[in-house]
Design brief:
This protein has about 260 residues and is mainly alpha-helical. The chain is about 70% helix and about 5% strand. It is built from ten helices and two strands; from the N terminus they run H-H-H-H-H-H-H-E-E-H-H-H. The protein has a two-stranded antiparallel sheet with strand order 1-2. Helix 1 crosses helix 2 and helix 2 packs antiparallel against helix 3. The two termini are about 35 Å apart. Its EC number is 2.7.7.41.
Amino acid sequence: MTQRIITGVVAGAVFLGLAILGGTPFHILVALLVMIAMAELFKMRKLEILSFEGILATLAALSLSLPTTQYFPKLGTDSNFTLFTLFLLIMMGVMVFTKGKYSFEDLGFPFLSAFYIGIGFQNLLAARENSLFILFLALFIVWATDSGAYFVGRKLGKTKLIPSVSPNKTVEGALGGVISAIVVAVLMVFLYPKQAPNIGMIHLIILVAVFSVVGQLGDLVESSLKRHFGVKDSGKILPGHGGILDRFDSLIFVFPVMHLLGLF
């Protein structure tokens, strides 16, 4: 627990500090997170990240997540998806020269991995560019959900949520996580009303409940992946916490849904 707390404080301070700073330093941090997350996925699948498809998939994820238009304005406003498509087409072109050893089905994992990681971090950066409050709102919703689910689940949890995926999660804990997220979000709005989105309180509470549920779904998706590949954690880069995917699995789901529902 001591190791977990120290890691959480240090890693959280670095992430939040660079998030507040924004700009290129934060973009560099996100690029590192994307590369590590891709390496974790490939390792779970027992594939080499430095393989041809591993490098191309990582480049695809980076091109999708980072603000390429800012750094390469001549590529046009849709450069993220243009570059992502280019790397996908190159991966598909490899099939021609492998004499059946690299099939269309083999493209599924690297392509889906790149999209999964890339679109999540793309929306994280988009949220930061739009509003620091929105970024912090998402972070605190996820953190409050995790904490609420853990403590309520330990105290009151009886009904298993999806034991085949995550045997320790309970329905009571999940509901406790939603309530915790709502309480924290309402407090944030009361403390920083000028920075908060201009929507009614009932609307906000409904959205926060949705985001909390979506965040828990993101966590369950990663749990399902780890169970499928037979690993306990996605990585070991964060002592006591596991890998980057273990910490960002919920946010990878929450940010795109926040964008879809118009918060940024």
